[in-house]
Specification:
The complex is a heterodimer of chains A (about 325) and B (about 350). Chain A is mainly α and about 325 residues long. Chain A is built from 13 helices and no strands. Helix content of chain A is about 75%, strand content about 0%. Chain A is globular, with a radius of gyration of 24 Å. The N and C termini of chain A lie close together (about 5 Å). Chain B has a domain of about 70 residues. Chain B has an 8-stranded mixed β-sheet, sandwiched between helices. Classes of the chains: A mainly alpha (about 325), B alpha/beta (about 350).
């Protein structure tokens, strides 16, 4: 068991190194650099060239990569042009916001998915199942950004039940009860609209897993033992059907860090997704590379967590 | 008290395909005595397993007509809670494929304990564990304490089949149904498992229905044999009569297709055609008629019924009186039949 986890951890290191190299090379290949475009066009090109040499912008790529990595390990991600602050600090703020948005979304996702998936799978082809599958098809077909806009318009602007932007009411003192309450109030609308749409995947997954497990031979064995219908469901079908959902959980964690570009943009929620969009539009390269690298690391870690969870819950995966 | 412990009367098990019901088991009448092994043979699709599942009440969406009388209950019309009390306690089943019949996420000890938890509520946890270890010993599992905590995927096919047998015999059932218990196992393991079933039969004093398509298994194990074709029993007799004096054309074809190494026969006899699918079954007349087209139509009964040709020997339809294999002369084929 521990051997498996250690082995799985060891292979993540080359993955992360490869990822950093890719992110760096892609950023290199983007046209322009920090000194193109931002400067007064009347400045002597020779002076700009001199500045480039001074800043190391003309160095060969491997030297620049080494410099960049050296900065990364020390937690120095460079300066943001747009926000005029260190990228590390900028990301820290946004990461916390995205994390809480992710947690709230996850809670709603599972609160919706598990009861619906179980009902739909257990009573498949009944009217309840048809209603739930109907909802999942609508969920699949509805673009998130349109749904989020409609939700914002109805509950934010028309009914004014929820704030329409930001992550906390201005002027609140961190640490007070009101501050936490305001945070939660700002979270509800974006996380709920996100969960309502993205949960349909999990509902469908759980439904088809249950229908699949229902027909397995070991379910007949359980019935032949004299197990009642509810025992068959609780002890045999449900546990086996939740496996892939548990495995999926690791990837959901990626979402905690990555945030969601659309939802954060629409609800004006200052998280990682919004930061990513702003930095791409504003050609804020040091932010873009840092954010992309972080997203990449998040997915590698997500896969790692998934594998570990799966090995914990499924005895067949444990490699000796 | 009579020796009969299970009586199936005119059982018809039908499945719904689109808007029609089709019978997978049709007009099956048979009895099982105490401490007897009744073999049921037939090729794939003949309704053997559907019959077994009907007796265990395991069909979810089938329409079951007729009677299955067992221990003052009629399983064809029984409430789910009463059925659950019988299943695992008075009747149990051994399944065909040991690779899929165990829950992959539960240790085997827990899976055997489950049937004790369901039927022997008074047992303490410690007693249960002792009983499970005892059962593992009984079915010939080495190092039972160790195997108790293992998952099914850590065990071989033969071991898993032993676990399934342990589950089945845990509460000493009176009726044991073995649905092709050795089909998925290799030959050496087959012999061991069959031996085990025979030993356990005497131990728990159960009546056993042994379903198989392997005539060798039947010859070795069964006391009486029922031959099924297309959902119906076509011939039923004690095992010696059936092998020495088979009457129904289907039984004779089956026996004829067993390879005979002694006579240096090179070509294998095969029965032409296949069992028709459920929806294409002829509903009238002799169901085997289509596979013996060289036999004249007038030889068959219009509504074939079981005829008792000798005490305890029943054959369906009259066509057996006129049957001969295509490469035999007619005179040869009728020997032994008066």
């Amino acid at each position: 068991m521990w051997k498996f986890i250690v082995r799985r951890l060891v292979i993540t290191f080359p993955q992360i190194i490869l990822l950093s190299l890719l992110v760096f090379l892609m950023a290199e290949m983007m046209p322009g650099d920090a000194l193109s475009g931002l400067l007064d066009p009347n400045i002597d090109p020779a002076a700009i060239e001199e500045q480039r040499i001074k800043l190391g912008l003309n160095d060969p790529w491997h030297i620049k990569y080494a410099d960049w990595v050296a900065g990364l390990v020390q937690g120095d991600l460079g300066q943001s042009f747009k926000f005029k602050m260190p990228v590390t600090e900028l990301i820290e703020q946004r990461l916390v916001n995205s994390f809480w948005l992710g947690v709230a979304t996850l809670i709603f996702t599972y609160l919706i998915a598990i009861p619906l998936g179980i009902t739909s799978g257990r009573y498949n082809d009944t009217w309840a199942d048809q209603m739930i599958t109907g909802y999942t098809y609508i969920g699949f077909a509805t673009p998130l950004f349109i749904f989020a806009l409609v939700v914002l318009w109805i509950f934010g602007f028309q009914l004014q039940w929820f704030p329409t932007s930001g992550s906390v009411e201005p002027g609140m003192v961190p640490g007070t009860f009101e501050y936490v309450l305001s945070k939660i109030q700002h979270l509800l609308l974006p996380s709920l609209s996100l969960a309502l749409i993205t949960t349909v995947n999990t509902v469908q997954y759980l439904r088809s897993e249950i229908i699949d497990t229902k027909q397995k031979d070991f379910i007949i064995t359980a019935r032949a033992k004299g197990a009642s219908e509810s025992r068959v469901y609780n002890r045999h079908i449900l546990r086996n059907s939740l496996l892939p959902i548990a495995a999926f959980f690791g990837f959901e964690i990626t979402g905690l860090i990555g945030g969601t570009v659309f939802v954060e943009q629409i609800f004006g929620y200052p998280g990682m997704g919004q930061l990513f969009l702003e930095s791409v539009v504003g050609r804020d390269y040091s932010v873009v590379t840092s954010v992309v690298l972080l997203f990449g690391i998040a997915s590698i870690l997500g896969a790692l967590i998934s594998d570990i969870i799966l090995s914990l819950v499924d005895p067949r995966i444990r490699i000796k | 008290m009579s020796k009969e412990m299970l009586e199936i009367k005119n059982l018809k098990t039908s499945f719904r395909i689109k808007d029609n019901y089709y019978a997978a088991v049709d007009d099956v009448t048979l009895t099982l005595n105490k401490n007897e092994i009744l073999g049921i043979v037939g090729e794939s699709g003949s309704g053997k397993s559907a019959l077994a599942f009907s007796v265990m009440g395991l069909h979810n969406r089938a329409k079951i007509e007729g009677n299955i009388l067992f221990k003052e209950h009629d399983i064809a019309n029984i409430s789910p809670s009463k059925l659950n009390k019988l299943r695992g306690e008075a009747m149990a089943m051994i399944f065909q494929d040991p690779l899929t019949a165990l829950n992959p996420l539960m240790i085997v000890g827990e899976q055997i304990s489950e049937t004790l938890i369901l039927h022997k509520k008074e047992m303490s946890q410690k007693q249960r564990k002792e009983k499970v270890i005892d059962l593992l010993n009984k079915v010939g599992i080495p190092m039972p304490e160790h195997v108790y905590g293992q998952y099914p995927h850590e065990l071989s096919g033969g071991m898993r089949q032993r676990i399934i047998i342990a589950i089945a015999i845990a509460n000493k059932p009176e009726l044991l149904i073995a649905d092709e218990p050795t089909t998925a196992l290799d030959v050496t393991i087959q012999a061991q498992i069959l031996d085990l079933i025979k030993t356990l039969k005497d131990d728990i004093d159960a009546g056993i229905i042994l379903i198989t398509h392997d005539l060798g298994v039947v010859a070795e194990m069964a006391d009486r044999v029922a031959v099924m074709y297309a959902g119906q029993i076509v011939e039923i007799a004690d095992v010696h009569t059936l092998f020495d004096n088979p009457l129904h054309p289907y039984t004779r074809s089956l026996l004829n297709s067993v390879p005979n190494t002694q006579e240096g026969q090179e070509e294998l006899h095969v029965i032409q055609g296949i069992v028709p699918s459920l929806s294409k079954l002829p509903r009238e007349g002799c169901r085997f008629a289509a596979r013996i087209p060289w036999i004249d139509d007038s030889a068959h009964e219009e509504n074939p019924v079981m005829h008792e040709v000798a005490p305890g020997h029943f054959v369906r339809c009259t066509c057996h009186n006129h049957f001969h294999f295509p490469d035999e002369s007619k005179e040869d084929s009728t020997h032994g039949i008066s």
